[in-house]
């Protein structure tokens, strides 16, 4: 009996290993591709194939592409039952590249990057960029066990890949490639949604730099898989712009409406879509001490607020509409004051505990400004620093010439001071725009101190 069991187990193991062993040759049968490919290298994670014109001296993909794929799986999870990435290289044919995922029968249900025209002899710069770019498409098209990319019509072929490439280079310790790519992306523009849009500089890099790096990228796909409509194991439809901003806000843990306004502009269509997205997908941004809800019984959209004062303009930037709140949750040790009017005027209501429906208080759909304070032992250490600090993001960081601001606070007239590492003031000015010229500063670490309406925000940055 034991011998039978051992034989059965051995048979299963042999069959599994055989199924996971990449074939020695592979005949292309997609698009215009018709090459007979030869396997040049494989391990537990990677299978590399060349056509007959790729030089056998090209060996850098064996290590680099494998490292990229291992890192990708470590961050975003597995991609099907076969752990391999199948990396195909061509020389003197098939310009550019394309991906395929384990969902796609077109490429025999394998995770594939297929690139040309080579010759792949440098193993640096553009050679690395294109293969990493194609891996980015596998992530967006098949992560978390769901097929499709609802955001692709918005960010297009390269914009998500740009921040993915930067993150991969940093993670693999390729600092010179990361610096090269970062500098290249500073001048990279797109025509969508408007001409001259700096996707990397003004959108993805600020999110990456301020809200968790690698993890904020992964959280976006996690939130998609958890909340966005699906048909079976495929996404049911594409996202609209409002949904796109909402889901990235969820990943970042803070409303990115101000950043989106700065990066893309903010149209009435965006506003309508954003508000609807918060109703359709009612997850909160971050974990504040007070949560405010659109509907009674904690329904509709929800916004998590930290300790601080919130005027109507600030609430709108966070996605809270005027005269639109119907229920509130309050963490122990805090209180929330709701005001009928903007700027903390008019009739007010103070709550120190949850209220599932403000109708009984005569405050349903009445709030235009909100004040949240700590009570008792919940001391002032949480009262101003965290919520206020999160209302400002600075980018690029490191910076060469122009430091830009993304904020939900009005900046006009704000005092901006920059201090060196010794605490000495090296620049002081009044804000009139959402940027400041730091080109004349010496290289080093600085602290930006912004004071506006008696509130002070500090951020550190590096000047190259």
Automatic annotation (TrEMBL):
The keyword RNA-binding does not apply. InterPro entries: Beta/gamma_crystallin, G_crystallin-like, Secre_tail. Gene3D superfamilies: Crystallins. PROSITE patterns: CRYSTALLIN_BETA_GAMMA. Transmembrane segments: none annotated. Residues 1-19 form the signal peptide. Keywords: Repeat, Signal. Residues 288-332 form the Beta/gamma crystallin 'Greek key' domain. The keyword 4Fe-4S does not apply. Belongs to the beta/gamma-crystallin family. This is T9SS type A sorting domain-containing protein. It comes from Niastella caeni.
């Amino acid at each position: 009996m034991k011998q039978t069991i051992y034989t059965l187990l051995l048979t299963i193991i042999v069959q599994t290993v055989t199924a996971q062993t990449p074939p020695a040759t592979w005949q292309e049968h997609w698009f215009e591709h018709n090459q007979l490919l030869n396997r040049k290298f494989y391990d537990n994670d990677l299978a590399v194939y060349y056509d007959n014109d790729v030089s056998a001296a090209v060996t850098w993909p064996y290590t680099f592409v494998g490292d990229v794929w291992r890192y990708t799986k470590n961050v975003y999870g597995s991609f099907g039952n076969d752990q391999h990435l199948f990396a195909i290289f061509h020389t003197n044919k098939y310009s550019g590249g394309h991906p395929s995922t384990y969902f796609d029968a077109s490429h025999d249900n394998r995770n594939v990057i297929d690139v040309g025209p080579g010759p792949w002899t440098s193993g640096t710069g553009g050679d690395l960029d294109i293969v990493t770019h194609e891996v980015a498409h596998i992530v967006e098209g098949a992560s978390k066990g769901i097929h499709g990319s609802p955001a692709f019509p918005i960010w297009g072929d390269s914009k998500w890949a740009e921040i993915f490439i930067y993150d991969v280079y940093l993670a693999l310790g390729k600092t010179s490639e990361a610096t090269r790519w970062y500098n290249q992306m500073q001048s990279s523009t797109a025509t969508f949604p408007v001409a001259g849009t700096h996707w990397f500089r003004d959108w993805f890099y600020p999110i990456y730099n301020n809200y968790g790096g690698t993890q904020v990228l992964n959280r976006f796909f996690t939130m998609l898989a958890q909340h966005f409509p699906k048909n079976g194991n495929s996404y049911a439809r594409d996202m609209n712009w409002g949904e796109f901003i909402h889901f990235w806000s969820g990943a970042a843990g803070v409303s990115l409406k101000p950043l989106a306004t700065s990066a893309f502009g903010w149209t009435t269509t965006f506003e309508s879509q954003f508000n609807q997205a918060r109703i359709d997908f009612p997850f909160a941004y971050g974990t504040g001490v007070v949560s405010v809800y659109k509907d009674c019984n904690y329904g509709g959209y929800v916004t998590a607020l930290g300790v601080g004062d919130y005027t109507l303009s600030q609430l709108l930037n966070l996605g809270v509409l005027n005269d639109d709140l119907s229920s509130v949750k309050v963490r122990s040790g805090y209180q929330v004051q709701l005001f009928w009017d903007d700027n903390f005027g008019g009739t007010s209501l103070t709550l120190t505990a949850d209220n599932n429906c403000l109708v009984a208080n005569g405050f349903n759909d009445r709030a235009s400004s909100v004040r949240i304070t700590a009570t008792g032992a919940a001391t002032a250490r949480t009262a101003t620093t965290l919520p206020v600090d999160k209302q400002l993001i600075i980018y690029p960081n490191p910076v060469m010439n122009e430091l830009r601001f993304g904020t939900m606070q009005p900046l006009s007239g704000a005092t901006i001071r920059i201090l060196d590492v010794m605490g000495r003031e090296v620049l002081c000015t009044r804000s009139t725009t959402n940027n400041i010229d730091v080109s004349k500063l010496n290289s080093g670490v600085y602290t930006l101190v912004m004071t506006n309406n008696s509130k002070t925000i500090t951020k550190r940055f590096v000047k190259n």
